[in-house]
Every structure is written in structure tokens, then in C-alpha cells.
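Narrative of activities, Objective 1.

The group set out to show that a structural description can be obtained from nothing but a protein's sequence at a throughput compatible with the screening campaign. Below is one input-output pair from the validation batch, recorded exactly as produced.
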Amino acid sequence: MYCPRCGAANQADQRFCFNCGTRIDQVAVVPQAPSSAGDITQPMTIVPTATYSPPSARIIPNSPLAIVSLVFGILAWVLILPLVGALVAVVCGHLARGEVRRANGSVGGADLAMAGLILGYSQLALMGVGLCALLGFLIVIV
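Output recorded for this entry:
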């Protein structure tokens, strides 16, 4: 069976064209009148009885908490909000990952939340190392 849309040859039991996805199981085959009296092969016209449009890609919205986590994680690293930004990024990142996990695919943004978590935790770790170094320096001096 040939696809009425792209002309690709398909198996007789296929419901959709393997090439373009057009539904081909519900097509009517209408023979045309022969062009001459001695013509043995009758050309056929395939007329689709149903139209099929392939499903469009579904857009999944991102969790607002994931976006907040990423934004505050970035703000923590550009030294605008080092401590507050890191804390907000960590808290919102964990909340966003929980929201995405509970939504079962209807909400996205797990990767944004993970990026916010990484930025937030690394900023907190760097601040902890800096605080330990500062305390060590102050103990040695005093």
C-alpha cells in the first residue's frame, strides 16, 4: 500500500506511513477508467477518507521554584547576595525537585532546580571554607 501523502511503499497491514506518519489504514482505492481499450493495467487513484496530523510536541512548563532556585544560585555567585542567595537557592531547589517528582511529568524544571542546588551548596561550602580560614588566621594573629 502506498502513502497518499508522500508515496512511500508500506506493508498492507500498517495503519500509518512509516515515512511521514499519515494514517493509511482508512483510504479508499478508486480505479480510474482505462486510457485505451487495450490497456491491461488500470491506474488507480488513492483518495484518503480520513486525515491524520501527527501529534505536536507537548510543552511542559517549568516549576517557578526551579527558576527561583537557579536565579538565586547565580546571584549568590556574582556576589550580590552571597549568603541569602545561596540559602534561597538550596531551599527552593529542594522544594522544586519535590514538586517535579510529585507532578508525574506535568511540571518540568528538575534540571534547573539541580543547577540551583549545585550553585547554592557550592557557594555555602566556599563560604564555610573561607570562614574557617578567617578564623584560623585570626587565631594565629591573636
